[in-house]
Amino acid sequence: CSLVPIVESEVLQDGDHDLEECQCITGKVLATVHKALNDHYVYLEGTLLKPSMVTP
């Protein structure tokens, strides 16, 4: 039996941030999560990224 990691980042959208700031923070979170996974030798090509919608 093989397991597939499902990666889901959650960025809370509290506050009055504009769309550009939400996109920027979401991008930084995804980059940081992927770096951490890579640092822990997770096979990134074998992961599933659960996308999130960016809304202001």
Features:
single chain, 56 residues, mainly alpha, two-stranded parallel sheet, 1 helix, 7% strand, elongated
Structural notes for this entry:
It is a single chain. With 56 residues, the protein is mainly alpha-helical. It has a domain at 15-40. It is 38% helix and 7% strand. The chain has one helix and two strands, in the order E-H-E. It has a two-stranded parallel ribbon with strand order 1-2. The longest helix has 21 residues, at 19-39. The chain is elongated, with a radius of gyration of 13 Å. The model has no long low-confidence stretch (mean pLDDT 87).
Structure in a nutshell:
38% of the residues lie in helices and 7% in strands.
SSE layout and pairing:
Elements: E1 6-7, H1 19-39, E2 48-49
- Assembly level: single chain
| Count of discrete alpha- or pi-helical segments spanning 4 or more residues | 1
Main beta sheet: 2 strands, parallel
N-end to C-end Cα span: 41 Å
Q: What does the overall shape look like?
A: elongated
Largest beta sheet: strand ordering: 1-2
* Estimated share of beta-strand residues: 5-15%
| Secondary-structure content class | mainly alpha
Helix percent reads 25-40%
Q: Spell the H/E element sequence.
A: EHE
**Rg calculated over all Cα atoms:** 13 Å
Contiguous low-pLDDT stretches (5 residues minimum) are none
Average pLDDT score: 87
Tally of strands: 2
